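Handout, page 2. Input:
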Amino acid sequence: MIEIGGRNLKIEFGKIGNLASSTVISSYGDTVVLVSAIWKKSEEKKDFLPLLVEYREGAYAAGKIPAGFIKREGRATDREIIIGRAIDRSIRPHFPKGMIDDVEIVALLLSYDNENPPYVPAIIGASFALCSSEIPFNGPVGAVRIGMIENQFIVNPTISQKSEFDLLLVGTKGGYIHMIEFGGKEIDETTLLSAIEFGIPYIEKTIKYQEELLEKFSKPKAEPTIIKASDEIYNEVLNFKEELKNAIYVPSKGERNLALENLYKEITQKLLEKFPNSEIEINEALNRLSSKIMREEVLRSNIRVDGRKLNEIRLISCEVGILPRTHGSALFTRGETQALVITTLGTKRDAQILSELEEEEFKRFMVHYNFHPFSTNEVRALRGPSRREIGHGALAEKALSYVIPEEDVFPYTIRLVSEITQSNGSTSMATVCGGTLALMDAGVPISSMVAGISIGLILESYENYVLLTDIIGMEDHFGDMDFKIAGTRKGITAIQLDIKIRGLDLRIIKSAFERAKEARNYILDIMSKTIREPRKEVSKFAPKIIVTNIPVEKIGDVIGPGGKVIRKIINSTNTKIEIDFDTGKTLISGPDYENVKKAKEMIDEILGEIEVGKVYLGKITRIENYGLFVEILPGKIGLVHISEVEDKPIKDLKSLFKVGDEIMVKVIDIDEVGRPRLSRKQALIDNSIDE
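Output:
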């Protein structure tokens, strides 16, 4: 057990789950995660590492029973998928290169203290479970979260501390960082780099703790199943180097992919005659040579696949308002990557209810990302959102969330949907750019424009490397890094780092930040030429909303007996009225602004106090032998006694009046329970009305 940030980090094992390769209980504070590592030797050849990471949260961890009719946990929630992806990216780079054995990590949240998020204990638990098992793994890795309060960095900030940002770092010995997740309100690069530097000693501390335990408790490592072509196969593939180079440097993605696909098939068919049953190995040799060709050209000649300079961004075009009936829309195109982003505005009842482990809350801003098969010219069935789609949507949502106006300023629920229509690298960052444009087109008063870019890396050594701005698919596939950075002109709002190497030193991270800032400002310049500021009004197809406040003690008056009063307002104005019974904050919404305004006026009338001596135009709601019941304000009904109807005696009120008639009445008194006494004859005198 070690102390970090005033709380204990503890790893326990040997008591639970002993049939797995390794099972550990990793805890930080009172947040406890069980992590099991399981593997199976590959029974067939494949050209990838089949790593599966499953993270699940039991409602019992926070002392809750699941909501809904079924009363048990179901499919993975978005948060479970996002945390699972973070664990995956933290460990994936450290398996032996070419390993194809099946590996699964299962992380179960057993206890949650609502203060310490499970990221750090889950990642460290996964690292130790792998290291202490026989599974081949080049670890351990360490993890820490860094926050900032009043310009002071803090370690593993709690939820209640309300840190200005949340920075998750995962790294290895020597100060190398290989996974970053970040979200914050326009944090400048210098501050963020200092925060990373601040976190490195704590990463080292968690690694040292694992190493001390591993000296006493670990299993001998098994040999991994590696797919790698023999030297004989690779030498044969080398004979096609020029043909591969020509295919790789075809400028267009579609033509390039087709040329490579046809060439791969042709070479494979030829070599299978000499090396039967070696299709996977031949494909590995082809990929290895293709990667070498691309990387060498970049390192030696600074020549990229599509002919751009190292810091050059592809051609960008922006359009807004391209869909006639949506509330806001934008088409953002960068090279062969394209995102069609649509904004929809709704009311509070459209907000997503998050009934997870924390207190129930309403999420009023959401981003959904859809990656369609036609965007890469593939044939694939359309099903529910994949983990990748959920992850990319969450990243874009994080990047944009820090510029969304508060509900008091803009009382709408906001949904962005990004339809990826073309894909050749960094569609999540295209979603951020297109999302900004679509929000502005919808009239959402965002505080700043946000843009995103992905920085790539080709690293021969830590002294010989190049950074690539705005990477395409092949540079991502054969390169070493996908460093997604989004933000405003003022600072960074979101980061996601994925790499395939040991890690990045601070020098590379700093260079990537500088390159991304330059690119971000360039993109923002282009975006601002399309739309400089949010539209002054929301779309005529969007709901219109007015916010008002009802004194809590008056809410009952607005609702009326059995909801009679509020239903009358809603039905007569075609609006929706949402009242917060704790604060009295009220949202009135509807398709027509004039009706929304009318509904507010009716509420204001109800809230108004009845004044003795004042004349009102009221509506007859009931007629009895002894008098007329008249509604003078919504829900406020008084009696006009028969003696107060006219100067002369009346035998039958129903012969003169009917329900629904409007008459002028004067308030002559209010009884001890607040009921007004009314007089028609005095109102007629006061107003000199001859009915």
